[in-house]
Design goal:
The complex is a heterodimer. By secondary structure, chain A is mostly helical. Chain A is 60% helix and 6% strand. Chain A has helices at residues 14-27, 40-47, 51-63, 81-106, 111-125, and strands at 67-70, 74-77. Chain A is elongated. Chain B folds into 2 domains: 2-213, Rossmann fold (3-Layer(aba) Sandwich), CATH 3.40.50.300; 216-257, no CATH class. In chain B, helix 5 links the parallel strand 7 and strand 8. Classes of the chains: A mainly alpha, B alpha/beta.
Chain lengths: 126, 261
């Protein structure tokens, strides 16, 4: 069963949190291509959020090409959702790298030190 | 399809004029907010045909409000259910059942069980929370398509409030159902409402999705500022001013004070 938690006090909107957690579940293989997501209303009830919140999360995922809603049947994970999400993640990485490298150049930190920092962080989180 | 459609509803009292038009799409929970005396109860009573408006047209679930068959699809709770003080849950069922074609006795007794409502107790001996649960159970037992609730969680402790919200969430699992409820407890709206209708001084100020309301305004404070601004008018503010996302309470308060730019 898909495990989603919504932090109510968070500055990140609930629909965004739901969306990101579903993406993460797809990336980790917890949900696979072709599998059905919980119903929007069932999920809203379980997470104690309004129906419109889950409707918005699912419709965003649909617009991003990750899921597909079949009227009257449910919401299914598309084929190859990992490729779609990976592409999104890569874009995000590019934006973040821009910031990191700019800051590094401004502070005159040598490239070798930046690479080392990246390596250490990677090992720490992986 | 709209669960509620109100067109040019006008009702005049001395010193007060209600003049509203709004519609509520089916399948959603819609909160009805505004301060005391803004026209909420008059609007709700007009929806039920309990008040005769001076003019206007009201459609409920696609039928004019005067159509008797509308009643079978409505579940109504005003402040607390109107049952005789010495009725037990048995009496309530006996009285209500003949009025509702779709009354489901099994569903009714399941709810009594689940909410631990002793069917032998008299109505007057139930706590306020239990009375509300009894009222909601009866609306659910006759398979209402639209719940019209006036302050359903008012005067209840947080635990019972959450229980009531849970029942409403369960009710909304069926997408053909709708809820329209007035409340001052904006925390409940944050938890359950999809849409908000905001009434002020007899006029509708806002009718849209909840997120659209909170995302279209920013609270602007500091440096001599203390107001609500439309998010597309945030340019050119001095640096020492902070802008933040308003709560529903903030929105009501600033609108009522007239501090909205």
């Amino acid at each position: 069963m898909l495990n989603i938690v919504v932090a109510i006090q968070s500055s990140i909107p609930a629909y965004e949190q739901i969306k990101e957690q579903i993406k993460a579940a797809v990336m980790s293989g917890e949900i696979k291509a072709g599998e059905m997501l919980p119903s929007v209303r069932g999920l809203a009830r379980e997470l104690k959020v309004s129906n419109i919140t889950t409707i918005r999360a699912y419709s965003d995922l649909e617009n991003e090409g990750i899921v597909n809603t079949v009227q009257g049947r449910g919401c299914f994970v598309n084929a190859l959702p990992i490729d779609v999400i990976k592409e999104q993640y890569l874009k995000e990485i590019d934006t973040n790298l821009d910031n990191i490298v700019k800051k590094g150049i401004e502070a005159k930190i040598p490239l070798s030190e930046l690479i080392l920092k990246l390596e250490n962080k990677y090992n720490e989180l992986n | 399809m709209n669960s509620i459609e109100v067109r040019n509803l006008v009702k005049k009292y001395s010193g007060f004029r209600l003049d509203v038009s709004f519609s509520v799409p089916a399948g959603f929970v819609c909160g009805f907010i505004g301060r005391n005396g803004a026209g909420k109860t008059t609007t709700l009573k007009s929806l039920l045909g309990m008040t005769v408006p001076d003019s206007g047209e009201i459609t409920i679930l696609g039928k004019p409000v005067s159509d008797e068959s509308v009643k079978a699809d409505l579940g109504v709770l005003f402040d607390q259910p109107y049952y005789q003080e010495d009725w037990t849950a048995y009496d309530i069922e006996r009285v209500l059942k003949p009025y509702y074609e779709r009354w489901d006795s099994e569903c009714w007794s399941e709810f009594l069980d689940r909410f631990k409502l002793n069917p032998r107790l008299k109505f007057k001996d139930y706590s306020r929370g239990m009375k509300m649960k009894l009222g909601i159970s009866s609306a659910l037992a006759h398979d209402a398509k639209l719940l019209l609730l006036d302050e359903p969680t008012g005067g209840l402790d947080p635990v019972v409030r959450e229980e009531i919200l849970d029942i409403l969430r369960e009710y909304m699992l069926d997408e053909t159902r709708s809820i329209f409820f007035s409340t001052h407890i904006t925390a409940d709206l944050e938890k359950i409402a999809d849409r908000i209708v905001f009434i002020s001084d007899g006029k509708i100020v806002f009718n849209d999705y909840k997120d659209t309301l909170t995302e279209s305004f920013a609270l602007v404070r500091g440096g001599g500022y203390d107001e609500l601004r439309s998010v597309n008018k945030l340019g050119g503010l001095p640096k020492n001013v902070i802008t933040e996302k308003p709560s529903l309470d903030d929105i009501v308060v600033y609108f009522e004070r007239g501090n909205v730019k």
